[in-house]
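Now for a concrete sample entry.
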Amino acid sequence: MFAVIKTGGKQYRVAAEDVLKVDKVKGELGEIVEFGEVLVVGGDSVTLGAPTVAGALVAAEVLEQARGPKIIAFKKRRRKNSRRKRGFRQEFTLLRITEILTDGNKPSKTPPPRPKRERPPAPEAEAAADAADTAETGAGATATRRKAAAKKASKPKGKAPAAKGKKAAPKGKKKK
């Protein structure tokens, strides 16, 4: 199920569990805010509002109240010794849509518990390859140490190369 809501002069298409950034709305962290201006409710059948859908409501949990990046407004009038520099940061609210309700239902006062995501276990092939690398270069060797050891082993032993950047003196007559 999805809905189109209007807030802050903009329209947003939302579904349950969507996270979106809207212009600042009143609400504390973790609080449930309601959007009553629902323009469209969709799913199996689409309901269009004229201008809004009667009895429809979208509930969202406030995740964060923050400010966006700084925007610099710089104005200069050439040859007039006139400059003006202003910085501005737009305030926004980060929301997670919890419910899309119809028929005049009221949202729950507390946000639903978030299911914990478990990390999938590493594939066995990668684990075996890592164990083989550790056994080759020694236990606990880091990737950079392994690379340095491989580089050192590949260099030929013998006379050191000449220093770079120094030019040999030109052969010929010397000035007195």
Summary: Residues 124-137 form the longest helix (14 residues). DSSP finds two helices and ten strands in the chain. The mean pLDDT is 83. Residues 2-101 form one domain.
